[in-house]
């Protein structure tokens, strides 16, 4: 794993953004998996600014949303869908055909997971997976447990996830999570993990210990051969 210690959030976002642009310039038909939340926002802002001067770079980019709060209206301002629409899909003008996303309130969540998995089978594997880490070590909504799930699935949200700032801003509490699974993430060709903020100090110490455990799902990233972990100085 390539660990990049960054002075601050801006440096972290800038370095990760530059690495994505290098790949996009080389292979414009990338499938990028995008987490929501605070950690990647600075990267997405930079991609949007890049679009303003070089829209060609994004003309074949496809996006897959990593996860979603289940049982809420996707139009809620704090849904993952609203976040991705506002920060990526609309500013980068990604058409429906190049956007894969869980519906936040499907009639059958199981069927929705099968639909997303079939999209990955046809359009994957993911080229670049942009991740944050939860305070409990989750990636996506792959929550700490006795065992982890490889493919898209319904997740029982851990208390730490239900404490996320996005939830606090939601009109109601989601009844479950919808998320890509561990194999979907680990089959990505390249993974970018951003760790930022003083509240991540405890989880980062566990992560950096390199002990692989289902109780720290992010620890499985140590098994992948192309992960860059950007760490801002507040998290150390
Ligand atoms: C969100 C997601 C979560 C977050 C994690 C960190 O789509 O997949 O796993 O990446 O909870 O959230 P932030 O970045 O807000 O600290």
Describe this structure in words.
There is one protein chain. By secondary structure, the protein is an alpha/beta fold. The protein has a single domain (2-235), classed as 3-Layer(aba) Sandwich (Rossmann fold). Helices cover 33% and strands 18% of the residues. It is built from eight helices and ten strands. It has a seven-stranded parallel sheet with strand order 1-10-9-6-2-3-5, with helices on both faces. The chain has a three-stranded antiparallel sheet with strand order 4-8-7, covered by helices on one side. α2 (41-53) links the parallel β2 and β3 (62-65). The two termini are 17 Å apart. The mean pLDDT is 96. The structure holds fructose -6-phosphate. Fructose -6-phosphate is lined by residues 35-39, 66-67, 80, 132-134, 138-140, 164.
Which cofactor or ligand species appear? fructose -6-phosphate
Second CATH tier, the architecture: 3-Layer(aba) Sandwich
The percentage helix is 25-40%
Q: Rg, please?
A: 16 Å
Indicate the overall shape: globular
Number of helices: 8
Structural class, please? alpha/beta
By DSSP, the count of extended strands is: 10
- The amount of beta strand, in percent, is 15-25%
CATH class membership: Alpha Beta
Biggest sheet: strands, sense, closure? 7 strands, parallel
Number of domains: 1
Strand order of the largest sheet: 1-10-9-6-2-3-5
Reported by name, the CATH topology is Rossmann fold
Amino-to-carboxy terminus distance: 17 Å
What letter string, H or E per element, gives the SSE order? EHEHEEHEHEEHHEHEHE
Mean pLDDT score, rounded?
A: 96
Note poorly predicted spans: none
InterPro entries: Glc/Gal-6P_isomerase (IPR006148), Glucosamine6P_isomerase (IPR004547), Glucosamine6P_isomerase_CS (IPR018321), NagB/RpiA_transferase-like (IPR037171)
Keywords: Hydrolase, Isomerase
GO molecular function: isomerase activity
Protein name: Galactosamine-6-phosphate isomerase
């Amino acid at each position: 794993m390539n660990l990049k210690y960054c002075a601050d959030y801006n440096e972290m976002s800038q370095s990760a953004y530059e690495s994505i642009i290098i790949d996009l310039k080389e292979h414009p038909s990338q499938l990028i998996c995008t987490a929501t939340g605070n950690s990647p926002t600075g990267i997405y802002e930079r991609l949007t600014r890049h679009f303003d001067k070089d829209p060609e770079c994004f003309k074949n980019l496809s996006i897959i949303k990593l996860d979603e709060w289940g049982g809420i209206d996707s139009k809620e301002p704090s849904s993952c869908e609203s976040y991705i629409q506002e920060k990526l899909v609309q500013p980068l003008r990604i058409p429906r055909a190049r956007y894969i996303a869980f519906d936040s309130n499907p009639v059958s969540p199981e069927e929705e997971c099968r639909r997303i998995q079939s999209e990955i089978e046809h359009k994957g594997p993911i080229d670049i997976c942009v991740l944050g880490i939860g305070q409990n070590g989750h990636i996506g909504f792959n929550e700490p447990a006795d065992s982890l799930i490889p493919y898209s699935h319904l997740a029982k949200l851990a208390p730490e996830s239900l404490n996320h700032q996005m939830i606090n801003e939601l009109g109601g509490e989601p009844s479950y999570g919808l998320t890509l699974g561990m194999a979907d993430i680990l089959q990505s060709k390249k993974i970018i993990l951003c760790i930022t903020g003083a509240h991540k100090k405890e989880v980062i110490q566990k992560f950096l210990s390199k002990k692989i455990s289902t109780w720290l799902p992010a620890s499985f990233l140590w098994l992948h051969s192309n992960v860059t972990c950007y760490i801002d100085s507040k998290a150390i």
